[in-house]
Design goal:
With about 100 residues, the protein is mainly α. It contains 5 helices and no strands. It has a domain of about 30 residues. The longest helix has 18 residues.
Length: about 100
Amino acid sequence: MKKIMSEVNLKSIIKFTEHFNIKPYDTKDRLVVFLYTLMRNDVPSGAVYRILVDMGVHNGRSTFSLCNDYLAKDAERIASFLRGDEIAIDDADQKA
């Protein structure tokens, strides 16, 4: 029964994507996958663009002062992974 449901769901998804002319987009870029998932699930793309605009105000700066040391270090760790480094993510990191 489970297998039949999966096949039905897959057929429904294919039909839906064909109706709206949605095509898969393949990428190996971790940053693209991260931003796509972030904007699809959690943060409107407009908010991401506002951040980019806000950062543009600081053109020419090489150093930024971030007020939350813990959050900044976490961002560095994620950025390192997105640049291609391997990092260990434990269960504690996934609890939010």
